[in-house]
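Work Package 3 (structural annotation) set out to generate three-dimensional models for the target panel prioritized at the project kickoff. During this period the team completed the workflow that converts sequence records into discrete structure tokens, so that structures can be stored uniformly alongside our sequence database. As a representative example, we reproduce one entry of 248 residues exactly as it appears in the project archive.
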Amino acid sequence: MSKRILLAGESWMSYTTHVKGADSFYTSLYETGETYLKAALERGGYEFTFMPNHVAQEEFPFTMDELVQYDLVILSDIGANTLLLPALTFTKSRILPNRCILIRDYVLEGGALLMIGGYLTFSGIDAKGKWQDTPVQDVLPVRILPTDDRMEHCEGIRPTQVCSHPALAGIGNEWPLILGYNKTIAKPEAIVPVTVGDHPLLALGEYGKGRSAAFTTDCAPHWAPPEFCHWEGYETIFCNLAKWLINK
């Protein structure tokens, strides 16, 4: 039976004002960024479920029975508020389970968690990701900063492999350039096999009966440029990570 992976996040809507002399008009656009990751993990034999942000806000599991149906949970470019503010709580003041507590307990009881970088994971832009203020912080191998943690590198910056690890099997030492990442601080117990600048790019840890990983750049543009997404090591690294995280 194939292992099941849930990805929450990786979607956005844009509303644009076009001004052309005396006239203006508006356009809207809905986009998702799961394509590369989904293809890589499905080729690796995993069953992949994608919950865009607006879907995850209401349909991300509220109970442990629902969450343990997945062998690995991936959070990518999704802010903590999306899970803390379901519509019934925000509009009707309904008391509902805290899904950030649920994710922590899921890991402690044997689940697997991967947080991937982006403008709304870790701390994110203007610190709006807010994961540092949730129980999810307790089961991540990095400490999230309380401030805007984006490290933008329009010139490109190259990750550096500093030690061997099963998650890096089949990956060469030469990584493609990336265009940014979330700055974090490795916890004392973390394994950090890949760095970028002076910070973790990949950090791994074990918490309770489960495992977690922080991959601090994106899995899609813009921080992950086409050269990274089409890199032969892209599929390998994410499939290796899934295997290590799931196989406690």
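The first strand starts at residue 4 and ends at 9.
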